[in-house]
Automatic annotation (TrEMBL), chain A:
<dbReference type="GO" id="GO:0005304">
    <property type="term" value="F:L-valine transmembrane transporter activity"/>
</dbReference>
<feature type="transmembrane region" description="Helical">
    <location>
        <begin position="150"/>
        <end position="168"/>
    </location>
</feature>
<feature type="transmembrane region" description="Helical">
    <location>
        <begin position="12"/>
        <end position="35"/>
    </location>
</feature>
<feature type="transmembrane region" description="Helical">
    <location>
        <begin position="68"/>
        <end position="91"/>
    </location>
</feature>
<dbReference type="GO" id="GO:1903806">
    <property type="term" value="P:L-isoleucine import across plasma membrane"/>
</dbReference>
<comment type="similarity">
    <text>Belongs to the binding-protein-dependent transport system permease family. LivHM subfamily.</text>
</comment>
<feature type="transmembrane region" description="Helical">
    <location>
        <begin position="277"/>
        <end position="296"/>
    </location>
</feature>
<keyword id="KW-0813">Transport</keyword>
<dbReference type="GO" id="GO:0015192">
    <property type="term" value="F:L-phenylalanine transmembrane transporter activity"/>
</dbReference>
<dbReference type="InterPro" id="IPR052157">
    <property type="entry name" value="BCAA_transport_permease"/>
</dbReference>
<feature type="transmembrane region" description="Helical">
    <location>
        <begin position="225"/>
        <end position="245"/>
    </location>
</feature>
<feature type="transmembrane region" description="Helical">
    <location>
        <begin position="197"/>
        <end position="219"/>
    </location>
</feature>
<dbReference type="GO" id="GO:0042941">
    <property type="term" value="P:D-alanine transmembrane transport"/>
</dbReference>
<keyword id="KW-0472">Membrane</keyword>
<dbReference type="GO" id="GO:0015190">
    <property type="term" value="F:L-leucine transmembrane transporter activity"/>
</dbReference>
<dbReference type="GO" id="GO:0015188">
    <property type="term" value="F:L-isoleucine transmembrane transporter activity"/>
</dbReference>
<feature type="transmembrane region" description="Helical">
    <location>
        <begin position="42"/>
        <end position="62"/>
    </location>
</feature>
Length: 303, 388, 394
């Protein structure tokens, strides 16, 4: 029972990652009514980009904190560009296609990214070791060991979630974004530059993936080409549970899923491999009870 | 007085003969050829012929001839299939691939009923197939049950598991519905991986099929020829696929099919007209899951092995794309689509490494350029025969 | 109508015989082609081992084909089993049902091998396993087609348990993967450790590709063992070592033959890998009878990847198969029979003798420790002299 602190920390860490991914999903859905399933693989791309940046920075002899900053910037820039590119070239032209086609296509885009990493990154099929950029070690509170890097990452993750939330709800760009999400036609009539807002929105959503990818890489010190797939499914789940299109819902959904996993692990340690099973079962139950998510999606259907 | 079409216009049947013969020859060639260059040439020729046929009305003529002479079509297909089996009688692996294609096609037929007819999104087709496979494995370990029953049980267990998902599937729509089946599929995989009772990641071994006393691991000795034991499986899957096609076709042409369409196209209007939406959706879901479970059991027994890694979310995705590639809602489309998706990667050695990325790019291309699929679904024609 | 003169007849006779003579002349130069298959994990996290094995097998074929006195020309068909049982079943079905492939040299991963043994027997294809160490592969059933040149994991666990007792360790935790391989490792580890009078505080079993080990490591931290025994393959082992350090768990890591090789040291990093112990059924390459010849030939062939721990065994298995085919011809049944009679066959790893289950009974277990990023024989390391210390020594 004294390990509660440990479990809490693990759960918060996972929840932050899931929350970031879920936020991306919800942003894409809110604005373009599209589930961009390649989100998870864009995350992987960001992590690998960060890895290459660290190698380069290391070769140039930069100090460790500087390497960290460079890696983070590269990851976020890469994911922003790729995310915006996918939206511009593949999603926008097809925005009137049946939603199933769109979903399938984004899944395939994700597969293509994943396979490209696997095939073209040197030794892509093997897990890659991510260098330690954060201070190692930690401190003990009771029987629980609090890793310093975990604390830093949780704080950074929460800060980024807060930043994105602030951008969406309190900045002019965010206002434009929400206007387009609410009613595209009226927004354009009101003078919002549709052609600029959309790519920027997708870029913002994808940046969360870049950040989440870096957090993952730094926490586990290991990345591999398929790490994005399960994260995408969980992130999507979290976004849905919270209610698609609702930022708070996505964040809550992410921490909720992590909480479910942690609960299973803490209460029944011998059944820890089942943590995902329980979590998904509970999600299915939740969805049955509230088919449009916990924080209901604001929307109506034309009959 | 309006004359019926049957008496006045004589529909030429030779397109039917040509089409079936061409399909049989192309299939045999693609399975047999090992030489990569020759294979590439054969593929190009096949594609060119298909394209020309579509352009110059050959496909339309074949369809008309087929719909007017269903029994002739069935007879031709049977003869052609026997010919193909005869030519391939020694090629163990080729026969195995053929049987796999048929299994995938039938599972996707079930998926067509769910997605193409009733409009349900199912991202867990592979998981339902896996349910059937694991049922066969567990029953095989217990022993005692005749194999025909084992296969049917595979289908029934899949239906049962599907019934657990009925409530979420009914209450959710669109993306939320996709989530339900997706979550189930992932959960199924994780559960089997973690669980030792079902073999865990190591998987389980299964005995081959022994149907009504005939052991499928025996080679067939007939008329002095020796046919590889895999011919047994090809014949079984062929018969099952044919039955499934006939059944689904009947479904489509009947009033059940019309009501499926209404439910899919406009739920609100359907309920306004008094249709019990839930009932029809459950029926479609059940039919699809039964087919998936049945064929999953056949697949498991044929390969003699089952593991969670055979039925991942990725495999479900492949099945959904077969349905879309073939033209969603067109049951004939799943056959060439399954052939392309299952057979080609095995044969084209040079893309072995790259087959997934090649496949992903192909699907993206089809979705952007030809979203109706290879063989688009024809608009329903309701025959109204005026009484004289 | 004229008659053919005697001269004409003679000329005709010579003319008809000449092509035959030429034909047999050239036939003496063209050797018949024989196909054999190599199966290993060429993609995925275990690929360093699979690629090392493949290179070694290719080397064996190349050297054999270069010998002019051989009757046949060998072609190596290479297949990737991705270290997954279901993929293994697929590729083995493919080669076993292809009658033009005479024999196979399969599998690094035990989980894959145990799934495919029945297929080899069903299609009567002789095979010689080059790395998988699970005992059940050769001992669960008595299949005449199944042979193995590498050792089985019972020996390494017995030696390992004695070794740890000799160092004075008492409290252990076992961490294994949930495949048959990990389960078997855990079984024998438990058996021998308890026999030696030591205590096992807990056992953990995880699927081999599980990413997050926090739950298990949290529990292990609570148990506070002196040694963590690892029964699994390199990727999970490296992950365990990395995450162990993050949780501040300072236990000694006792490994198995699955983490032997450069791949583990590269994946975990030399600092973290330092001091890890393992037990492997073979002396190092430099001490093998044919070790120098092998490493020279390997280097000369220009392979960029190292042969890894089991490369020499892949070489031996391939060479054995080819020698047998030379002796009895490309016939599956004859090869199977002849492989059953292998006794004291010389090879680069020493004499090979198959027992009645096809298992090579000669390998000896050696203890290794990681020192400065390389696996070093224990007795020659600085640990035995006391210059460096293992962790948590009581």
């Amino acid at each position: 029972m004294g390990m509660i602190g440990q479990h809490l920390l693990n759960g918060l860490m996972q929840g932050t990652i899931y929350g970031l991914v879920a936020m991306g999903f919800t942003i894409f859905f809110g604005v373009m009514n599209v589930i961009k399933f390649s989100h998870g693989d864009v995350l992987t791309l960001g992590a690998f980009g960060g890895l290459v940046a660290v190698w380069a920075a290391n070769a140039l002899g930069l100090s460790v904190p500087l390497q960290f900053i460079v890696a983070l910037c590269v990851a976020m820039a890469l994911t922003a560009v790729v995310g915006a590119g996918i939206s511009h070239f593949l999603i926008m032209p097809l925005r009137n296609a049946p939603p199933l086609n769109m979903l399938l296509m984004t899944m395939m885009v994700g597969t293509a990214i994943r396979e490209a990493i696997r095939l073209f990154f040197p030794n892509g099929t093997n897990p890659q070791r991510f260098p330690e950029l954060l201070p190692a070690g930690g401190f003990n509170i009771g029987p629980s060991f609090f890793r310093t890097d975990a604390i830093i990452l949780i704080i950074a993750g929460a800060a980024s979630i807060g930043a994105v939330y602030w951008i969406i709800n309190h900045s002019k760009f965010g206002l434009a974004m929400r206007a387009v999400a609410e009613d595209t036609e009226t927004a354009r009539v009101m003078g919002i530059n549709f052609g600029r807002i959309i790519p920027l929105t997708f870029a913002l959503g994808s940046i969360t993936a870049g950040f989440a990818g870096m957090i993952y890489a730094l926490y586990y010190s290991e990345i591999n080409y398929s790490m994005g797939l399960l994260l995408a499914v969980i992130g999507f789940t979290a976004a849905i549970v919270g209610g698609l299109g609702n930022i708070w819902g996505a964040i809550i959904g992410g921490y909720l899923f992590a909480g479910l996993q942690t609960f299973v692990v803490a209460a029944m340690p011998s059944m820890s491999d089942y943590k995902n099973v329980f979590a998904f079962v509970l999600i299915i139950v939740l969805i049955t009870w509230r088919p449009t998510g916990l924080l209901a999606e604001r929307g109506s259907e034309r009959v | 007085m309006t004359p019926t079409s049957r008496t006045l216009v004589r529909v030429p049947v030779w397109p039917l003969f040509v089409a079936v013969a061409f399909a049989a020859v192309a299939l045999t060639a693609l399975v047999l050829i090992e030489n990569q260059k020759l294979l590439g040439a054969a593929l190009a020729i096949t594609a060119a012929v298909c394209f020309c046929a579509a352009r110059f009305g050959g496909v339309a003529a074949t369809e008309v001839a087929a719909s007017e002479n269903p029994w002739l079509l069935r007879g031709l297909i049977t003869v052609a299939s026997l010919a193909v089996i005869f030519v391939l009688r020694d090629d163990n692996f080729g026969l195995l691939m053929l049987a796999t294609v048929l299994i995938y096609a039938t599972i996707c037929l079930g998926l067509t009923v769910q997605m193409g007819y009733a409009g349900l999104t199912n991202f867990a087709a592979a998981a339902f197939a896996g349910t059937g496979g694991y049922t066969a494995a567990m029953l095989g370990q217990q022993g005692g049950l005749p194999d025909a029953l084992v296969l049917v049980c595979g289908g029934l267990v899949a239906v049962f598991i599907g019934s657990l998902l009925i409530l979420p599937v009914l209450r959710t729509r669109g993306h939320y519905g996709a989530l339900t089946t997706m979550a189930f599929g992932v959960m199924f995989n994780v559960f089997l991986d973690a669980n030792d009772f079902f073999g865990g990641p190591q998987g389980l071994k299964l005995p081959g099929i022994n149907l009504f006393g005939w052991d499928f691991t025996n080679d067939i000795h007939i008329f002095g020829l020796v046919l590889s034991s895999y011919v047994n499986y090809v014949i079984l899957t062929g018969i099952l696929t044919a039955l499934a096609m006939i059944f689904v076709g009947l479904l489509d042409r009947s009033w059940v099919g019309v009501w499926f369409d209404v439910v899919r196209l406009d739920e609100t209007a359907a309920s306004v007209f008094g249709l019990k939406i839930a009932y029809w959706k459950v029926l479609a879901f059940t039919i699809g899951n039964f087919l998936a479970g049945l064929m999953g059991a056949v697949y498991a027994k044929m390969t003699g092995f089952i593991a969670p890694a055979n039925f991942t979310f990725g495999d479900s995705l492949v099945m959904v794309s077969i349905v879309i590639l073939g033209g969603i809602g067109n049951r004939w489309g799943v056959l060439p689509a399954a052939l392309i998706v299952v057979l080609l990667p095995e044969k084209l050695q040079f893309i072995q490494e790259y087959r997934l990325i090649f496949y992903a790019v192909l699907v993206i291309a089809i979705l952007t350029m030809r979203p109706d699929g290879l063989v688009a679904r024809r608009v329903r024609k309701l025959h109204t025969e005026a009484s004289a | 109508m004229g008659t053919i003169s005697k001269r004409g007849l003679a000329a005709l006779a010579v003319a008809s015989v000449l092509p035959l003579a030429f034909g047999s002349f050239s036939a003496a130069f063209a050797k018949d082609k024989v196909k054999i298959a190599f199966v290993g994990p060429l993609t995925g996290a275990i690929s360093p081992h699979g690629i090392g094995g493949r290179n070694s097998a290719e080397l064996a074929v190349k050297l054999m084909n270069a010998e002019p006195s051989t009757k046949y020309e060998y072609e190596l068909v290479v297949l990737d089993d991705e270290c997954k049982p279901n993929v293994g079943v697929q590729v083995v079905t493919k080669i076993a049902s292809d009658r033009s492939i005479i024999a196979a040299i399969p599998h690094y991963c035990s989980a894959t091998a145990i799934a495919t043994v029945d297929i080899f027997n069903r299609f009567k294809m002789p095979m010689v396993v080059w790395a998988a160490v699970l005992p059940e592969i050769t001992y669960a059933k008595k299949y005449p087609e199944v042979h193995r040149v590498s050792g089985i994991l019972i020996g390494q666990n017995r030696i390992g348990a004695q070794f740890m007792k000799a160092r004075g360790y008492k409290k252990f935790v076992s961490f294994a993967d949930s495949t048959d391989y990990g389960k078997s490792m855990n079984k024998y580890f438990t058996q021998f450790t308890l026999e030696n009078g030591n205590e096992i505080l807990g056992s953990f079993s995880v699927p081999p590709d599980q990413q997050d080990l926090s739950a298990e490591l949290t529990k292990i931290k609570e148990l506070n063992p002196e040694v963590i025994y690892f029964g699994g393959l390199t990727p999970l082992g490296a992950r365990l070592r990395t995450q162990m350090a993050k949780f501040g768990i300072n236990a000694q890591l006792e490994g198995n033959s699955g983490i032997m090789g450069d791949a583990f040291v590269n994946a975990a990093g030399p600092e973290l890998a330092e001091g890890t112990l393992t037990f492997f059924d073979s002396p190092p390459l430099s001490k093998m009878p044919g070790g120098k010849m092998f490493s020279d030939a390997y280097k000369a062939a220009g392979y960029s990847e190292p042969p890894e721990a089991y490369g020499p065994f892949a070489y031996v298995a391939t060479r054995l198969v080819m020698e047998t085919i030379e002796k009895v011809g490309p016939d599956r049944a004859k090869v199977t029979t002849d492989l059953g009679d292998v006794k004291d066959r010389p090879s680069i790893v020493g004499p090979v003798t198959f027992d009645d289950h096809g298992q090579n009974i000669t390998p000896l277990t050696t203890s290794y420790v990681v020192q400065d990023g390389k696996w070093v024989v224990w007795e020659e390391s600085e640990y035995v002299s006391g210059k460096r210390k293992l962790k948590n020594l009581p």
